[in-house]
Design a protein that fits this description.
This is Smr domain-containing protein. The chain has 19 helices and 6 strands. Helix 18 links the parallel strand 3 and strand 4. The protein has a 4-stranded mixed beta sheet, covered by helices on one side. A two-stranded antiparallel ribbon has the order 1-2. The chain has 4 domains: 127 residues, no CATH class; 65 residues; 92 residues, no CATH class; 87 residues, Ribosomal Protein S8, Chain: A, domain 1 (2-Layer Sandwich). The longest helix is centred in the C-terminal third of the chain and has 37 residues. By secondary structure, it is mainly alpha-helical.
């Protein structure tokens, strides 16, 4: 492991490495407040930062000695989430132009499965449906540079000038130029300049072909007409006058074939080089690694019978949280000692704290899913009610969004006139402390942003969403 030297691991970067979710402005302000003392800064962050002290991952707006730093961080997070949402809506609108048969929710799922990449999502839709898009255009014809590159790969022993002449004769048609090069010996110089002139001037820039008495073939430099005739004469069918492709000499290496650049016939068959095979193998491995994993439904993960109780996962998350806080304090203490040894040790402790933080977040997520399963096991017969007690804000919003989508789909498919209401139970926030009902406020803000029509039951701590 490479340990960073002191000159490239200043206090601000150390704090950002120790707390990955801490924004730079907040870290700098707290450092300046404590006169660049990392130990005191870390202690304040551990006391005020909700991400360090809460097991459920919820955020708090503590009004302690941080001077509003946590409030600033929460505001920044809200702004970032809003920007992400707006960006997602723009991408969905772009896909709606191409795919009019898909709903917004389906397009959002496809985008998430393809890492929010519009091009990859469009390709996935095209491959699954097999139907072209409404506004799709045919690919442009290949350029002369592309044809030249293909011919140079096919005929590495022929000079580039000769290839350009063949393309000019065949009007930039790579297939006809390949047949012309195979039917003529460009490697040997023509014996007569007149023969070379007649071959070059066969059909340059669309002019009429000059008459040829067949001497070009005897000289070893046939023109386009005689080269096609010679190639056609080798066919078993004498009446078939179309030029046939003659493959170059075979090699011991396996051969690969591709599609014609005009997409209307076979193309050259070339033996790949060893370097090309290695590169292609690496690309295949990269594609396998980068293949997007399907998004697992949260409800399916919660209903998994292999999940243990929520208390078990909460206890595991608490253990990893204590280990993480211990590593953070050790990292701050070693960093305060200074020197290369102290800061290198601080870097090691900081890495350990990040590992424990990953485990903590994992068990926190499992705890929330198990808690949701336990809370809603009594609503199996009444699928229009969801209980969010004991969940973090992020988990509650995820479950709310998914269950609302399911309820709305059921209402749309129901033929009866009256649609059932959807009830969301969050609690009145009596256990939230001085910060107030965070879960209640978050769900209410989400329903307002999404435009749902709902009534609030303050005493019960619930929302009743209506279909109309």
């Amino acid at each position: 492991m490479d340990h960073p030297p002191p000159d490239i691991f200043p206090p601000l970067e150390f704090l950002q490495f120790l707390f990955p979710t801490l924004d730079k402005t907040t870290a700098k302000s707290i450092l300046d407040k404590h006169h660049q003392n990392v130990h005191d800064t870390v202690n304040q962050l551990l006391n005020d930062d909700a991400d360090c002290v809460s097991i459920d991952g919820s955020e708090a707006s503590s009004a302690g000695s941080s001077g509003g730093s946590v409030n600033t961080r929460a505001t920044n997070r809200t702004t970032i989430e809003t920007d992400k949402w707006n960006d997602l809506r723009q991408k969905v609108d772009c896909l709606k132009i191409l795919c009019t048969n898909f709903s917004d929710s389906e397009l959002e799922s496809i985008l998430q499965n393809n890492h929010l990449d519009v091009d990859r999502a469009a390709n996935a839709i095209y491959e699954s449906s097999g139907q072209p898009f409404l506004n799709s255009r045919p690919p442009p014809p290949p350029s002369s540079a592309h044809s030249t590159r293909l011919l140079r790969e096919q005929f590495p022993d022929i000079a580039g000038k000769r290839i350009e002449i063949a393309l000019r004769i065949c009007r930039n048609d790579a297939n006809q130029a390949a047949n012309y090069l195979l039917g003529s010996d460009f490697g040997a110089r023509p014996s007569s300049p007149s023969v070379a002139k007649s071959a070059v001037d066969t059909k340059p820039w669309g002019r009429a072909a000059s008459a040829c008495n067949g001497s070009c073939a005897e000289a070893g430099f046939p023109c386009l007409t005689h080269a096609s005739a010679i190639t056609a004469g080798k066919s078993s069918n004498a009446n078939d006058a179309a030029p046939k492709f003659i493959a170059p000499p075979t090699s011991s290496t396996p051969r690969s074939s591709g599609k014609d650049i005009r997409a209307d016939g076979p193309v050259y068959s070339s033996a790949p080089r060893a370097t090309e095979r290695r590169i292609q193998q690496q690309l295949n491995e990269m594609n396998e690694r980068k293949r997007p994993t399907p998004v697992v439904s949260l409800s399916n993960a919660v209903s998994n019978s292999n999940l243990r109780s929520a208390d078990y996962y909460s206890a595991k998350a608490q253990e990893y949280q204590e280990e993480r806080l211990s590593k953070i304090r050790m990292a701050a203490e070693m960093y305060s000692r200074g020197g290369l040894t102290g800061r290198s040790a601080a870097f090691v402790y900081a890495q350990d704290s990040r590992k424990y933080d990953c485990e903590r977040r994992l068990y926190t997520e499992l705890s929330g899913r198990a808690r949701f399963r336990e809370n809603n096991s009594r609503f199996q017969d009444h699928q229009s009610t969801v209980d969010l007690h004991g969940l973090s804000k992020q988990q509650a919003l995820s479950h709310t969004e998914e269950e609302l989508a399911k309820w709305y789909t059921r209402c749309m498919n129901t033929t009866s006139g009256r649609k059932p209401n959807f009830t969301i139970i969050t609690g009145s926030g009596t256990h939230s402390g001085r910060d107030g009902p965070r879960l209640f406020t978050s769900v209410r803000g989400y329903l307002r942003r999404e435009g749902w029509k709902f009534d609030v039951q303050e005493g019960r701590g619930a929302f009743v969403v209506s279909f109309e």
